[in-house]
Write a structure and sequence with these properties.
This protein is mainly β. 10% of the residues lie in helices and 46% in strands. It has 2 helices and 8 strands, in the order ββββββαββα. The longest helix is centred in the middle third of the chain and has 10 residues.
Length: 147
């Protein structure tokens, strides 16, 4: 038996890059930062905070949701698995990268402020065309997107 499971909680480092591969299958990729807090150990030595950057990959419906709702600075919780892939660069040097392939995720917080000239992303899904009550979404206590 073996287990390949990753659980991360962090902030998105850049807007997702979404592309479409075979049979119009969406794939989103972006970076996620996780930070260990600074602390002082028992000997009085201060250890600075440390940030790790993770390469995140989402496929299918997850990629569509990422394209629509995830922006730089968004805090997300995700579960997935590690994948390492190899390729050769222009100089025929073999390179490796490790990525997190996401199985499920949850948006926890939007970015704190939009960059100048950018609109703050909204996490409310578009209303269906046939909705007779345009205020129905405002009456629901949970404003998170359904995923």
């Amino acid at each position: 038996m073996s287990v390949n499971k990753v659980i991360l909680l962090g902030r998105v480092g850049r807007d997702p890059d979404v592309r479409y591969v075979a049979q119009n299958q969406p794939v989103a990729s972006f970076t996620l930062a996780t930070t260990d807090r600074a602390y002082t150990n028992a000997n009085g030595v201060q250890v600075p905070e440390r940030t790790e950057w993770h390469n995140i990959v989402m496929w299918g419906k997850n990629a569509e949701v990422a394209e629509r709702y995830i922006r730089k600075g968004t805090q997300i919780y995700l579960e997935g698995r590690l994948r390492t892939r190899a390729w050769e660069d222009r100089n025929q040097v073999k390179r490796y990268t490790t990525e997190i392939y996401v199985d499920s995720f949850e948006l926890l917080a939007r970015p704190t402020a939009a960059a100048p000239g950018q609109q703050q992303p909204t996490a409310r899904p578009a209303q269906p065309a046939g909705n007779a009550n345009p205020n129905a979404a405002q009456q629901q206590p949970n404003n998170n997107p359904p995923f």
